[in-house]
Amino acid sequence: MGRSTLVRLAHSDHPIASPLSDGRVDDLLRRAVGGRGSVLDLGCGDGTWLLRALRQNPSLTAVGVDTSDVGFEQTLAQAAAAGVADRLTLVQGDAQEYAGDAPFDAVLSVGAAYAFGGLGPTLDAVRGHLATDGLLLLGDCFWPAPPTQAVLDGLGGASADEYLDLPGTVDLVTRHGWATVHGHVSTQEEWDDYEWAWTGAPARWAVENPDHPEAREVLAAVEKHRDGWLHGYRGGLGFVTLLLHPGRAAVTGG
């Protein structure tokens, strides 16, 4: 089974592919795109963030870009049912290479820094898409404490320099000329809800479809993921979502 198909199953009970509660997602979207005219999601996954933003904001138009189009068809069908399909465009392509026709009032990039080669390159790349008074909603992992070998192994052999700690993450944002105007650190409850959903939904599919040729493979994959979480990185990996304004560099002359 391809990774994209496994991820689709894993997010069937938790469409937001990040450790964030439904209420927190709504709050972050309200802060980022409320009253604005356009939004771009770089690394949009199946487009769930944008669908929720469009439902909140009747005058908003949205564009999402992702290397995979897995889930696009379902999201577009949901958009049609909600009467917002004419305001949603989903593009399969490399987020680094996307060239929009005009700057957007807001940009989302949540859990997608890998697509740009890291957090710093993401911050630099987004500027070319964002209006001067726009807002960026950025989500990324951080180390709440120096990672142990168990944490790194649980993440599939991650390296200790893959992320910064929380102060270092915010300092990096500041050095790149962004002003942090709001932030949220995901709680352990949000993490646990996300991970139980990620492992639970595909496990249920596998045991309910035992004769499917990929059932055993799916069950093994989710059990491996669950073991890596419970025996490794649970409590050892953080996630922060920051609302950023691009104007700090102009204010400070940086």
Please count the helical segments.
10
Distance between the termini: 48 Å
Name the helix and strand elements from N-terminus to C-terminus, one letter apiece.
Answer: HHEHEHEEHEHHEHHEH
- Rg is 18 Å
Q: Portion of residues in helices?
A: 40-55%
- The share of residues in extended strands comes to 15-25%
Mean pLDDT: 94
Instruction: Characterize the overall form.
Output: globular
Number-wise, the strands total 7
Largest sheet, if any? 7 strands, mixed
Strand arrangement, major sheet: 3-2-1-4-5-7-6
List the helices and strands and how they pair.
Layout: H1 3-10, H2 22-33, E1 38-42, H3 48-56, E2 61-66, H4 72-82, E3 88-92, E4 104-110, H5 119-127, E5 130-142, H6 149-154, H7 166-175, E6 179-185, H8 188-208, H9 215-233, E7 238-245, H10 248-252
Parallel strand pairs: 1-2, 1-4, 2-3, 4-5
Antiparallel strand pairs: 5-7, 6-7
Helix pairs in contact: 1-8, 2-3, 8-9
Task: Please describe what this structure looks like.
With 254 residues, this protein is α/β, with parallel strands linked by helices. The chain has 10 helices and 7 strands. It has helices at residues 3-10, 22-33, 48-56, 72-82, 119-127, 149-154, 166-175, 188-208, 215-233, 248-252, and strands at residues 38-42, 61-66, 88-92, 104-110, 130-142, 179-185, 238-245. A 7-stranded mixed sheet has the order 3-2-1-4-5-7-6, with helices on both faces. Helix 5 (119-127) links the parallel strand 4 and strand 5 (130-142). Helix 2 (22-33) crosses helix 3 and helix 8 (188-208) packs antiparallel against helix 9 (215-233). The longest helix is centred in the last third of the chain and has 21 residues, at 188-208. The chain starts with a helix and ends with a helix.
